[in-house]
Amino acid sequence: MKSQSVVTDLRRKVFTEVARVAYDSENVSNDIEEIPFLITPDEVPKYRENIYRERQIASERVRLAMGLSLRPANKPVHITAGVDKSTIAEKYYEPPLMQVIPSACDKCPDNEYYVSDQCRNCVAHSCIKNCPKGAVSIVDGKSYIDQSKCIKCGKCKAACPYDAIAHHVRPCASACGVKAISTDEYGRAHIDTEKCVACGQCMSACPFGAIADKSQIFQLIQAIKKGDEVVAAVAPAIIGQFGPKVTPGKLKSALLALGFKDVYEVAVGADVGCIAEAHHYVNEVTTGKLPFLFTSCCPAWAVLVKKYFPDLAGKVSEELTPMVATARSIKVNRPDARVVFIGPCAAKKLEASRTSVRSYVDFVITFEELAGMFDAKNLKLEELEDLPVSFKATGAGRGYACAGGVASAIEKCINEYYPEAQVKIQHAEGLSDCKKVLTLAKAGKLNGYMIEGMGCPGGCVAGVGTIIPPERAKVAVEQIVKQSTEIIPPREMEDLAEKLSKMN
Fold first, then answer.
1. In 25-170, where does DSSP find H-type helix?
2. Within 10 A of 394 (CB to CB), how many other CB atoms are there?
3. What is the pTM of this model?
4. Confidence (pLDDT) at 4
5. In a domain? residue 93
6. φ, ψ at 361 (rounded to 5°)
């Protein structure tokens, strides 16, 4: 298994050590205190100006990995404060989900233009001539931009023949499709929780690893140690995440070694949702009862609609998401089971915290967090036994992991089971693109459409909790889709969808 960057390596080390404490510690508070020193054992810093700042950041990461909130910068709060409350075998969550670690934020300039060393003080001085506010002048033989006059129009940059003017944009703010990130009074990034939809793209974009979400691995391991019947429900995007040689059978071996009692395929829940949404579209949209229909499987997309286009909220499909459909189907046969959704998505943690969902989905962890648990147990997945698996999902359900896969699956079902119906498909990926599509829908430009929205560009394979690059993940998913015995779910699944939707 290979991590994507130094930042993800550091995150994984924290997950590994927290998981190790959860599995093995007889004195949690003492061992938690040691983790920052295990991660930064030397006196010479590797990434920051001093080792003390590195350990401060590591300490905050440890708290987030335990589901705890960050400590205030202006009050003496112990690293283990609140640990007693979080040392439980139940879902533990202190809002908000996404937080900026103040000591890790580098206070990146946001939307500023600077002249680089590439400036040649040319005769044309196009930068000066094209500036509408007189913000550019020549200082010490080089162009200079007066930030107090600059209106950030970018005309100087466009005019420079040497590309000597750089545009500095805060990476996290640039990645946020809902403009939820601003600058606080100290120049650090700040997340407006009222605007945030928890897609996590800011976390992926920050090159300093200053943004992180809260984990549930510590509480999950408590449930496993307690002896509860803990079962894993794995999202289809898991294919290829732990290496090309790690088959579903080897992955099952690894999960059993962690203490899980069984493994289920969430793509089966996608099949249930697929056939149900096909039925919903034909009966509601093609008949004119609804102008269009939004898919519901991506929680960031669903929250985006409700927060920013509330008058369209009723157009989000009420069919169960794959995670919830799978969890409910497990509970039918195993009512005492504790269901753990393992996927690529941070926003699923918020979905699982909703009142209507939390009784079915007990924990949510990402592939990245799962990798930390594997490391804590020193598991070499490629060397494990290739156990038989009874996965029964169709190619349609497994294809949900890639952008466009949801709409495509629904379209195939409609064409097969409702051949008389004309289906129109539109999909959007990334929050900025999603907002554009929603604006078109609101304006009546997409009437008659089934509209798929994915918060992450590329779909679930590009989720913030993934391990491998999205391009590789997409290829792996496409291969497993092609290898699927069945292309689309049987129509009889409509009955199962109805049964699951009525569960209390």
1. 28-39, 51-65, 83-86, 126-130, 155-159
2. 25
3. 0.93
4. 58
5. yes
6. -105, 110
Q: What b/e readout covers 168-190, taking b as 16+ CB neighbours within 10 angstroms?
A: eebbbbebbbbebbebeeeebbb
Q: What are 269-315's pLDDT values in tens digits?
A: 999 999 999 999 999 999 999 999 999 999 999 999 999 999 999 99
Mean pLDDT value of segment 205-227: 96
**Domain containing residue 60:** 6-107+172-218
Q: Which token pair is 429?
A: 């990926």
Q: Does residue 483 share a domain with residue 453?
A: yes
pLDDT tens digits, residue range 434-458?
999 999 999 999 999 999 999 999 9
Reported as a single tens digit per residue, the pLDDT across 107-140 is: 998 889 999 999 999 999 999 999 999 999 999 9
Residue 34 inside a domain? The answer is: yes
On whether both 251 and 375 belong to a single domain, the answer is yes
List 427's β-bridge partners, or say none.
452
Residues 193 and 281 in one domain: no
- CATH number of domain containing 130: 3.30.70.20
Short-list 252, 237, 208, 227, CA closest to 106: 208
**Comparing C-alpha atoms, which of 289, 243, 295, 288 is closest to residue 273?**
295
The CA distance from 104 to 64, in Å, is: 13
pLDDT above 70: residue 3: no
Length of the chain: 504
pLDDT at 378: 98
Judge whether 366 lies within some domain: yes
Q: How many domains is the chain built from? A: 3
Encoded tokens for 132: 């509408």
Asked if 107 and 60 count as a contact pair (C-beta separation under 8 A), the reply is no
Q: Is the pLDDT confidence value at 333 over 80?
A: yes
pLDDT attached to residue 110: 86
- Alpha-helical (H) ranges within 87-149 are 126-130
| Whether residue 99 sits in one domain with residue 193 | yes
Count of other CB atoms within 10 angstroms of residue 286:
19
Same domain assignment for residues 261 and 146:
no
Examine residue 96 and say whether the peptide bond preceding it is cis (omega within 30 degrees of 0): yes
Q: Which of 135, 151, 168 is the last residue of a domain?
A: 168
Q: Does residue 212 sit in the same domain as residue 253?
A: no
Q: What percent of the chain has pLDDT over 90?
A: 93
Q: Give the tokens for residue 62.
A: 């440890």
